Amino acid sequence: MIYRNKTEAYWEPLLTIARDELGIQSFDPMGKPSADIRMCRVEDIGRALERAYDLGLLVGHTVTNAECAKEKCA
Predict the structure, then answer these.
(1) Domain range spanning residue 62?
(2) Residue 1 maps to a domain
(3) CA distances from 57 to 51, 53, 62, 67 (A)
(4) Where is the DUF6900 domain (predicted)?
């Protein structure tokens, strides 16, 4: 998988989750295919996905509240 736009706002939080939960330090390829393959426990993957999902909910809620405040929602 090649990531082209590393300046997106979500990039750093996702890399932080990958570091904390999966021990992945970078999404960049290492050069050797065997270096890009790692074993992860299903529980760790689930925890990483849960954190990413929670982050998405938080960002969505924040954006919605900001838009609502702009439009003076009830």
Answers:
(1) 40-74
(2) no
(3) 10, 6, 9, 15
(4) 14-57
Question: Considering its fold, how many domains does the chain have in total?
Answer: 1
| Residue range 8-65, pLDDT digits in tens | 778 889 999 999 999 998 888 777 776 778 899 999 999 999 999 999 999 888 888 8
Q: What is the pLDDT of residue 18?
A: 94
* Residue 66: predicted pLDDT: 84
Residue 68 has pLDDT above 80, yes or no: yes
11: left (phi over 0), alpha (psi -120 to 50) or beta: alpha
Give CA–CA dist 17/24, Å, rounded.
9
What are the strands, taking DSSP E only, across 31-74?
none
Q: CB count, 10 Å around CB of 43?
A: 9
